Predict the structure.
Amino acid sequence: MKFLVDAHLPQGLCALLQAAGHDALHTSQLAAQNRTTDRAINELSLREQRVVVTKDSDFFHSHLLRREPWKLLLVRTGNIRARDFKELFQRHLPAIEAALAQNSLVELDRQAVKVVA
């Protein structure tokens, strides 16, 4: 699976995803880095069939209205330390992978992975 991790999330999430066998980019690796626009993120997601991982609810609305980005993992953990977030993500990664294999919009909160669409 291919992922694009948004600026609001730690770069270390890419290493975690890569260690699990996924292709993962962080917005900091793109030409405009963390100033990459939502539109450019959506275009890259559609072109390369990448799951956008973000806390930004604007992507939630654009996915529901226009099916952009291609697939979305919306993080709804609130404020959380990077280390704690990576541990939470690692613990739920099998459920995240399974949910995204069959669905286009998935949420991760502090307790569970939820399929939205």
About this structure: The mean pLDDT is 96. DSSP finds four helices and six strands in the chain. The longest helix spans residues 82-102. Residues 2-115 form one domain.
